[in-house]
Design brief:
Helix content: 25-40%
Shape: rod-shaped
Number of helices: 3
Distance between the termini: 92 Å
Strand content: 15-25%
Oligomer: single chain
Number of strands: 9
Radius of gyration: 26 Å
CATH architecture of the domain at 49-146: 2-Layer Sandwich
Length: 148
Amino acid sequence: MRVSSPIPHHKARIEIIPLIDIMFFLLASFMMVSLSQVHMKGMKVNLPTGQTGETQAKNEYISVSVDRDGHPYFDKEEMRSYDDLAARLKKVHDENPEAKVFIRGDADTVHFNIIRVLDTLRSVGFYKVAFEIKSEGLKNMPGPSSGP
């Protein structure tokens, strides 16, 4: 003799609507996180701090760095000499003369090295240049900051 259960027996169903809601939430979360990340183009240098720095938009820009020993870098690529840097900058200027240029100078480098980079930039035609610093108010946030 077969005894049936007093609880009605239903087939299991997978509800797809809550699954779609969760997938959209995860997609939106990952998109927001990826947009908030800053892509560091320059070499890691010990930037000097400043009081009046402003965070710039992370649009396309060129980063020219000088390490503490005075070696120039174009984005993260080390240049053998300042003549190589000038040739590379000339090529970029010919392609995009309105490109933004940020100079990242190590706090321990001598002033002469920064002026040499500035002269190189001006010799190829870049006149709108910003110096990248660590702002006092934004110490923990990476990204291009420029002072006056």
